[in-house]
Amino acid sequence: MIKFFIFFSISYLILSLILRYFIKVSILKPFGYPKLVYIVDFFFISFLIANVVIRQGYSFDFLKSYQKSGYIFIGITWVFFLTYLANIFFTTSKGQNSSRRQFLRKTIGGVGALGAGALAYKGYKNAFEPLVITESIPLPQNYESLSGIKIVQISDLHLGPTLKKDFAIDTVNTTNGLNPDLIFITGDIADGKALEIKDMVEPLRDLKAKFGVYYVVGNHEYYWGVQGWIDTIKALGINVLVDEHSVIDINGTQVTIAGITDKTAPRFKLNHSFDPKVALKNAPDQSYKILLAHRPKACYQAEGLGVNLQLSGHTHGGQAFPWNLAVGLVQPYLKGLYTHKEAYLYVNRGTGFWGPPNRLLNQGEVSLLTLVKKTDTKES
Question: What does the alpha-carbon distance between residue 199 and residue 202 come to, in Å, rounded to a whole number?
Answer without folding.
Answer: 5
